[in-house]
Amino acid sequence: MPPYISIITASWNVEKSIPQLLTSLEGQKFTSFELVVQDAISSDNTLQLLNSASQRLPSVRVSSQKDHGIYDAWNKAVCRADGQWLLFLGADDRLAGPSVLEKASNVLNTLPPEVIFAAGNVRMLDKGERCRLYARPVLDGGHARLKYIAPAAFPGLFIRRKMVVDNPFDASLRISADYDFLCRTWEDRKAVVLDFDVCIMQEGGISSNPANQFAAAWENTKIALRYFQRVWEIKRIKMLIKAGLVSGAFRILGPKSGATALDAVRRLRRLPPCWK
Predict the structure, then answer these.
(1) Is residue 207 very low, low, confident or very high in pLDDT (cuts 50, 70, 90)?
(2) pLDDT greater than 60 at residue 220
(3) Which of 104, 112, 160, 214 could tie 247 with a disulfide, CB 3.0–4.6 Å?
(4) Tens digit of each residue's pLDDT (9 = 90 or more) over 138-191
(5) Which of 117, 232, 216 is nearest to 176 (CA)?
(6) Residue 76 CB partners (closer than 8 Å, separation 6+)
(7) Which residues of 140-157 are buried (b: 16+ CB within 10 A; e: fewer)?
(8) Residue 91: pLDDT above 60?
(9) Which percentage of the chain shows pLDDT scores above 90?
(10) What domains, with CATH codes, occur in the chain?
(11) What are the two backbone dihedrals, phi and then psi, of residue 259, each rounded to the nearest 5 degrees?
(12) What is the pLDDT of residue 218?
């Protein structure tokens, strides 16, 4: 029998980060899944780690060849996947617990064919394992909110494979092709919420790295211009200014000082109104 869920991952020289993903998969109670990895010809021990994991996981399928970035790699991996549902995880992500795939499959099995997305919670941690973001899906008015933000964090989103096969990622985009994909395919009535944590991701990936916030916000803006009217509103300008300040702090002051400055801003936001 083919696997029910395919975990899609792109890799390149991730020997230090991918073990936590592999460990989280090895501990899953639900075993009808496969890990489909598209590797960009890693020169470290990434491929050796994946080959070793294949002895402990239900199925590991690895292809190593040149690609044009993470979204081109995802497209290649999707073509090799056999699962009915796909979950896209970064090499430095991990599932939030040993029951994640079991709980997800219990819900996915009950969904009618017209439901395409099942969205769970995602936690983003910094290097000190402190939670920097807890993203819960918000499906009400999701398509309208897409002008500014995705209705669900992508690493917590189970998607029917056929939808991705029919609508591949735009590999010309560097940071936000997952956002572009949702702008093209999302409908609130085709999505359900999973009331549990799906993924724990690490701050510092290409899209979550504070130094890249302006680049990500700018690419999101260009994507929004493809699909929405009246994109240049005050809210958009504020988002770009904020992202520019954060990116500038990290690039000019360096990661350590930039993180200190960002922490100070976060603490200020949490103060009672009389202190602001």
Answers:
(1) low
(2) yes
(3) 214
(4) 988 777 789 999 999 999 999 999 999 999 999 999 999 999 999 999 999 999
(5) 216
(6) 38, 63, 65, 67
(7) eebbeebbeebbbbbbbb
(8) yes
(9) 78
(10) 5-208 (3.90.550.10), 212-275 (no CATH)
(11) -65, -40
(12) 95
Query: Integer distance in angstroms from the first to the last C-alpha of the chain?
Result: 60
Q: Which amino acid is at 30?
A: F
**Reported pTM:** 0.90
**Residue 261 pLDDT class (50, 70, 90 cuts):** low
Question: Checking DSSP bridges between strand 5-11 and strand 131-135, what pairing results, if any?
Answer: unpaired
- Write the CA distances from 59 to 7, 26, 92, 97, 104, integer angstroms: 10, 11, 19, 19, 19
Q: Residue 67 pLDDT > 60, yes or no?
A: yes
Say which amino acid occupies 73.
A
List C-alpha distances in Å: 99 to 119, 208, 210, 276.
Answer: 16, 26, 31, 42
Query: Which two structure tokens, joined as six digits, stand for 268?
Result: 């200020």
Q: Nearest 10 degrees: CA dihedral of 153, 157, 162, 166?
A: 0
Contact between residue 213 and residue 259 where contact means Cβ atoms under 8 Å apart: no
The Cα–Cα gap between 224 and 38 comes to: 28
Q: Are 121 and 173 in contact (CB under 8 A)?
A: no
Type and span of the H or E element at 232:
none
Token pair of 243 as six digits: 């992202």
Please tell me the number of Cα atoms within 13 Å of 94 on its side-chain side.
18
